[in-house]
Amino acid sequence: MIGIAKTGSGKTAAFIWPILVHIMDQKELEPGEGPIAIIVCPTRELCQQIHAECKRFGKAYSLRSVAVYGGGSMWEQAKALQEGAEIVVCTPEVELLLSGSDKWNWLTRRLVEFTSTGSVLIFVTKKANSEELATNLTQEGYSLGLLHGDMDQSERNKVISDFKKKNLPVLVATDVAARGLDIPSIRTVVNYDVARDIDTHTHRIGRTGRAGEKGVAYTLLTSKDTSFAGDLVRNLEGANQAVPKELMDLAMQVG
């Protein structure tokens, strides 16, 4: 659910109460399970604010909430996640780059580090882009799977199975193909191409940090991504947060 309303009008309570009702309908978490709900917000301050509300409302039901955001103690956040939580409140981890070639350089510089911590899911927008990126990474020596909407179901099942078993450390996928993927070993999501809309973006980054594990999502923006930059700016402004100059400059190029 995406809710838009004035400050102080009860947005937080409006989505926390249905979350609590849903959680209370589930069986109690076993060690290594959870979270049941993930709340993604645009800034650290908003993340802390929502986390405080989750703790306040959830206390009566002995439900645990963990806040995960950049700038906090990674050790403390990881420890809190390992101890288990029904709710995780987190921020989406954004990289502003100059061009498509910068995206490629950014990815190849970090991919070894990403795969050393767990499985990596890379999102691209179009089938042709997914095939091109998969081919280029294969030529660089990476072992990976490819998932897009034109593959038949048996091909898709084989790739997903290999990725789940960790036979393939990297999966390059389009939104259509990756809808609903629930793979606990995914530690990193890279939005190599930005999503078509904020809803799809939220779904993508929710593929990591599952089953109570730690996860990081990166979104790579270039000068072509003016409309998506506008969405991010609106998110930041709606939370009364400072907008980085580079991001604002990019958003102002719309139209």
Automatic annotation (TrEMBL):
Q: Give the record's keywords alphabetically.
A: ATP-binding, Helicase, Hydrolase, Nucleotide-binding
Top enzyme class: hydrolase
UniProt xrefs under CDD domains:
SF2_C_DEAD (cd18787)
EC number(s) stated in the UniProt entry for this protein:
3.6.4.13
Where does the Helicase ATP-binding domain start and stop, copy by copy? 1-107
**One MF term from GO for this chain?**
helicase activity
Protein name, UniProt field: RNA helicase
Phylogenetic classification of the source organism: Eukaryota, Metazoa, Chordata, Craniata, Vertebrata
